[in-house]
Amino acid sequence: MVVELASSHPGFADPVYRARRNDIAALALNYRPGTPIPAAEYTAQEHEIWAVVSRELAVKHDRYATAEYLEGAARLGLPRDRIPQLEEVSRALEPLTGFRYVPAAGLVPLRDFYGVLADGLFHSTQYIRHHSVPFYTPEPDVIHEVIGHANALAHDRYAALYRLAGAAARRVESEEALEFVSKVFWFTLEFGVMRERGELRAYGAGILSSYGEIEEFRGMDIRPLDVAAMGTTHYDITKYQDVLFQADSLQHLEEVVGDFWATCDDDSIAKLVATAV
Ligand SMILES: [Fe+2]
């Protein structure tokens, strides 16, 4: 297994890192559903990256994360001093909300990635970012997947929203409708913000796993929660997200986005696209 890295990737010119990435990706290829997720033998340096980032993020979460995300984090109790194995994350999560982790070697096709959320399965990378820039990653690493997503998946109400997104991805047929569903996911469960106790707080995994972005989101272009707008707004994954959509509360998110995912189909999405242009 050879993992491709862009020339701008912090680990591009580091042969040791590239060999690690290939070895860790091979673990996912050898995974068979129903068996334990193969353990990655992380180096002391890799555990240290997790420890540093997880300590800093925990402080920021107290200030910037929603109450339910913090509740999920408290229930899950991720280790702060070392990278947990995905199998360990899965075992802690399953009794809470039924979600389990599945290792992914690389990018998972949209329909599979979202579709299996309906079954309570979450595809996750297993590698960690390059040590030269511990607070940055150009791609979703184990810090994003576990600190960002698992803490949310540990709360019943967020877990229910992930499942509804999965059901929507399975229900829609066209690639356009699937893309719409995935964009709504992007602007909510990846980059969603919410008004809570008079402040703007984040529940999106992309913000809550990013040391830099978490300090910036309150200053972004904050727009009202609107499914048609979210499903048709362009985004650039390589930059901080400058357009964010704000829910008035978790209940508001459930009513607007949860109900959309619960009921949408190709026709209803085509109508929303038509109203958005
Ligand atoms: Fe993510």
TrEMBL record:
Its cofactor is Fe(2+). Fe cation binds at residues 144, 149, 190. Transmembrane segments: none annotated. InterPro entries: ArAA_hydroxylase, ArAA_hydroxylase_sf, Aro-AA_hydroxylase_C_sf, Aromatic-AA_hydroxylase_C. It comes from the Bacteria. Keywords: Iron, Metal-binding, Monooxygenase, Oxidoreductase. GO terms for biological process: aromatic amino acid metabolic process. Gene3D superfamilies: Aromatic amino acid hydroxylase. GO terms for molecular function: iron ion binding; oxidoreductase activity, acting on paired donors, with incorporation or reduction of molecular oxygen, reduced pteridine as one donor, and incorporation of one atom of oxygen. Residues 1-277 form the Biopterin-dependent aromatic amino acid hydroxylase family profile domain. Belongs to the biopterin-dependent aromatic amino acid hydroxylase family. This is Phenylalanine 4-hydroxylase. It comes from Nonomuraea pusilla. The lineage of its organism: Bacteria, Bacillati, Actinomycetota, Actinomycetes, Streptosporangiales.
